[in-house]
Every structure is written in C-alpha cells, then in structure tokens.
Amino acid sequence: MRGFGFVELEADAEETAAIEALDGAEWMGRDLKVNKAKPRETRSGAGSYGGGRKSYGGSRY
C-alpha cells in the first residue's frame, strides 16, 4: 500500500521540526518519508495526451 498527504504549517520553524521528528519514523508498521513539497514545474503542451478526436482525411460524404 502506498499513500501520501499534505500538511501546511504557518511557521518555518514548525515545518522544520515536524520534518525532523517524523521523517523515518514508524507509523502502523511502515516507515514514513517526510519532506518539504516543491512547486510543480510548468509543463509545455508538447507530448501531452490530450482528449478530443483527431481528423484524418476529412469527410467521407
């Protein structure tokens, strides 16, 4: 089983303390991996799997 969650803390000191206290800790028989989230990188439209129909050769009628 794999899962994830997000937590927001107001102060940087709280954030650092939580990461240090919980990273590597065991919870329900599993080792936790805790780190600071990074902003998503902007993706270009190239190579994406978009929806919609593609037209090949125009109308038959």
Note down, in words, how this protein is organized:
The structure is a single chain. The protein has a domain at 10-37. With 61 residues, it is an alpha+beta fold. It has one helix and two strands. It is flat and about 60 Å long. A hairpin with a 2-residue loop joins strand 1 (26-27) and strand 2. 18% of the residues lie in helices and 7% in strands.
SS summary, helix count: 1
Please outline the major beta sheet.
Answer: 2 strands, antiparallel
Relative strand content = 5-15%
- How far apart, in Å, are the first and last alpha carbons? 53 Å
Average pLDDT number:
82
Number of DSSP E strands = 2
- The chain-level structural class is alpha+beta
**Secondary-structure element order, N to C:** HEE
| Strand arrangement, major sheet | 1-2
Q: Rough shape? A: flat
Keywords, separated by commas or semicolons:
1 helix, alpha+beta, flat, single chain, 61 residues, 2 strands, 18% helix, two-stranded antiparallel ribbon
Task: Give the SSE map.
Layout: H1 12-22, E1 26-27, E2 30-31
Antiparallel strand pairs: 1-2
Provide a compact summary of the structure.
This protein is of the alpha+beta class.
